[in-house]
């Protein structure tokens, strides 16, 4: 069999990626993982995906689904063996339906997150998922990794935003579960198997997504804090005073902000201060009349009086608010420019965040693993998700001879402490290639057995995204 010719017959010449253009699809966004592929196809329809999957099934060929390739754990990168076919969903970007009365939109997996956000806004609605990579990440990848982002505190992650799915199974069969129902008590909720499965059970090709009322009133604050404990206190005060209007509560360490200000020219400190921690707070409401600014000023004013907050900046315009969010969104870009970051996407109970971070930092220092590096923290503290980062400058990392062992040792301590505090080793980035081996250390045998049973039932030969997750 000539695989390339058979694939071209299915997807046409435009759907087959020229080997000369393949390199960006064979490496992850951070450049840490590199692989090879027998071929890369870009189907334009679910039927074409099904035909490609059936062809690969007949000839026992592995498949790697790929969205925008913006993931941070190597989940969309093929192995170095070069025995897989990559299925990119980039050409499947149609909007199939908008149901205003049901507050849903049905889209294909290749739609970018920004495209869906703009579509929702055009019909006076909101799709609340918000990520730094929203201009390039695709909704199929967001679903497959159960993406989180900055609005999880109010709206939940992708599991909470998906009502129905269409997916192609490993044998080429199409499962149409595109139901826009909020209540469907008819047995197993099959869509949840594919959300967060990282392409190991099939290829997500379309989804029915929830829409929400457009947000017309906003209030934003940049608040300086002395400690992570103060952030937890301020979060509780904001929840009590602001209720559902509290949309985002983002925590950043001074060490992280210094890297941003150094590496990204169009950023500056709103307070010109040196507080150890900062939180970015946003309130939002569908009503123009909502007294959000007064609400936020009151809670921050009380926090200042009580010594919980050190200082605060409340922007007076949308442009000023956007500038604050820009600082938050360019964190990853700044860190890549500065050096090599050993990043961990942990979650712990909110009350345990300060103690967990402090003890983890002490352990890493005692172990002698972070000489010359910086500890950075940034995260959606309102849902317990903290990105714990050990950042090595390029020159420092170049002198490290045991890089893989160093990364593994740092990960063992960071993730081990998160689990010790009742947390998880992955809050939103997924497992992919980066944490596959660790997963078996932190999941119980019973839970792993259940996951493997699901995998065997849908993908008995293990052809879907091999080497990822399980």
TrEMBL record:
Its EC number is 1.-.-.-. GO terms for biological process: respiratory electron transport chain. One of its GO terms (molecular function) is oxidoreductase activity. InterPro entries: FAD-bd_oxidored_4_C, FAD-bd_PCMH, FAD-bd_PCMH-like_sf, FAD-bd_PCMH_sub1, FAD-bd_PCMH_sub2, FAD-linked_Oxase-like_C, FAD-oxidored/transferase_4, Oxid_FAD_bind_N. It comes from the Bacteria. It holds the Pfam family FAD-oxidase_C. Its cofactor is FAD. PROSITE patterns: FAD_PCMH. Gene3D superfamilies: 3.30.465.10, 3.30.70.2190, 3.30.70.2740, Uridine Diphospho-n-acetylenolpyruvylglucosamine Reductase, domain 2 (3.30.43.10), Vanillyl-alcohol Oxidase, Chain A, domain 4 (1.10.45.10). It is an enzyme of class 1 (oxidoreductase). Keywords: FAD, Flavoprotein, Oxidoreductase. Residues 33-214 form the FAD-binding PCMH-type domain. Belongs to the FAD-binding oxidoreductase/transferase type 4 family. This is Putative FAD-linked oxidoreductase. It comes from Paraburkholderia fynbosensis. The lineage of its organism: Bacteria, Pseudomonadati, Pseudomonadota, Betaproteobacteria, Burkholderiales.
């Amino acid at each position: 069999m000539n695989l390339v010719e058979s694939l071209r017959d299915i997807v046409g010449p435009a759907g087959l990626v020229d080997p000369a253009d393949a390199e960006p699809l064979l490496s992850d966004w951070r450049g840490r993982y590199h692989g090879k592929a027998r071929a890369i196809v870009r189907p334009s329809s679910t039927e074409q995906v099904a035909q490609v999957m059936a062809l690969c099934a007949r000839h026992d060929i592995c498949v790697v689904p790929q969205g925008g390739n913006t993931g941070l754990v190597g989940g969309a990168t093929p192995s170095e063996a070069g025995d897989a076919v990559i299925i990119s969903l980039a050409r499947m970007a149609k909007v199939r339906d908008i149901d205003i009365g049901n507050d849903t939109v049905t889209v294909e997996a290749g739609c970018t997150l920004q495209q869906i956000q703009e579509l929702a806004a055009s019909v006076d609605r909101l799709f609340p998922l918000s990520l730094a990579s929203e201009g390039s990440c695709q909704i199929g990848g967001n679903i497959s990794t159960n993406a989180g982002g900055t609005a999880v505190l109010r709206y939940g992650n992708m599991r909470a935003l998906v009502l129905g799915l269409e997916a192609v199974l490993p044998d080429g069969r199409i499962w149409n579960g595109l139901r826009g129902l909020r209540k469907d008590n008819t047995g197993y909720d099959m869509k949840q198997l594919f959300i967060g499965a990282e392409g190991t059970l099939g290829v997500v090709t379309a989804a029915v997504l929830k829409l929400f009322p457009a947000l017309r009133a906003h209030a934003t604050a940049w608040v300086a804090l002395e400690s992570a404990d103060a952030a937890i206190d301020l979060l509780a005060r904001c929840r009590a005073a602001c209720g559902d209007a509290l949309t985002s509560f983002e925590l950043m360490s001074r060490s992280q902000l210094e890297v941003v200000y150094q590496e990204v020219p169009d950023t500056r400190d709103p307070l010109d201060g040196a507080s150890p921690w900062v939180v970015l707070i946003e309130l939002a409401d569908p009503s123009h009349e909502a007294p959000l600014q007064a609400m936020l000023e009151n809670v921050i004013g009380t926090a200042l009086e009580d010594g919980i907050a050190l200082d605060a900046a409340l922007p007076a315009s949308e442009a000023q608010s956007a500038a604050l969010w820009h600082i938050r969104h360019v964190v990853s870009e700044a860190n890549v420019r500065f050096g090599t970051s050993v990043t961990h996407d942990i979650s712990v109970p909110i009350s345990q965040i300060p103690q967990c971070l402090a003890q983890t930092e002490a352990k890493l220092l005692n172990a002698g693993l972070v000489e010359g590096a910086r500890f950075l923290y940034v995260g959606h503290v309102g849902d317990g998700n903290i990105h714990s980062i050990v950042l090595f400058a390029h020159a420092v990392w170049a002198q490290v001879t045991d890089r893989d062992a160093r990364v593994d040792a740092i990960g063992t301590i960071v993730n081990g402490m998160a689990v010790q505090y009742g947390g998880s080793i992955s809050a939103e980035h997924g497992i992919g290639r980066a944490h596959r081996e660790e997963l078996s250390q932190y999941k119980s045998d019973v839970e792993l057995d259940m996951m493997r049973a699901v995998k065997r039932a849908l993908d008995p030969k293990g052809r879907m995204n091999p080497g990822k997750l399980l």
